[in-house]
Amino acid sequence: MANLETQNHPVETVSWNDAAEFCAKLSQKEDLKPFYFRQAETVIPLEGTGYRLPTEAEWEFACRAGTTTKYWLGDKDVELIMAAWLNSNSGGRTHAAGELKANPLGLYDIHGNVWEWVDDAWEPTYYGQFEEKPAINPNTPNYAGSLRVIRGGDWANAASYCRSSARNANDPPYRYYHVGFQVSLVAVGSRVSRP
Asked: What gap in Å lies between CA 135 and CA 138, rounded to an integer?
């Protein structure tokens, strides 16, 4: 894979802490109030208006794009290769964003290619409470030392690990070749100014 152009490949080998710090620096660059403050391997959540990692609920909403199937394009594992880099079609590596089919919201590689960090802390049973009492954009409470959630699966996974509902977790300082992130920005109309 020498001389492989990777400029448009997803970011990878970044920790949750690295991703939060990136969001904070990008927010500061654009004169927005950061959602995170990083000090060594500790990240302190803030009331921001800038860039942040999506919540688990936001990530899944974006992934599903209005569908209720295993993957945004249906329930058949074999069809997933049209929209996701998996162990069966990746050639053992990441690929440039946008080479496969986008979901109905225009998002590429939401399944496969790299796992993506989200804002939520890992709590295996947290979302069970919303089966009978739905909530809008719930976010698992954070506590010191909590694992952080990753979503989407990666290029080395079988299709079953890339389902819209699949989730996993790692320590916030964890870096691995198959974990990256995407950022979210609060819509201007929904930003709240604080005195």
From this structure: 6
Alpha-carbon distance of 181 to 151, in angstroms, equals: 9
Contacts of 189 (CB under 8 A, 6+ apart): none
Spatial separation of the C-alpha atoms in residues 71 and 159, rounded to whole Å: 9
d(CA 141, CA 144): 10
Q: How far apart are CA 7 and CA 19, in angstroms?
A: 18
Beta strands 36-39 and 115-121 are unpaired
Q: Which residue has the tokens 């800038």?
A: 50
Domain parsing of the chain, residue ranges: 54-180
**pLDDT band, very low/low/confident/very high, at 2 (cuts 50, 70, 90):** low
Per residue in 174-188, pLDDT (tens digit) is 999 999 999 999 776
Angle at the Cα of 80 from the Cα atoms of 62 and 90, rounded to 5 degrees: 105
CA 68 from chain centre, in angstroms, equals 19
At 11, phi and psi to the nearest 5? -65, 145
What is residue 1's predicted lDDT score, i.e. its pLDDT?
56
What CATH number is given for 54-180 in this structure? 3.90.1580.10
CB atoms within 10 A of CB 192: 7
Closest CA to 90 of 156, 136, 184, 145: 156
> Please, is 138 exposed, middle or buried when counting C-beta atoms within 10 Å of its C-beta (0-12, 13-18, 19+)?
middle
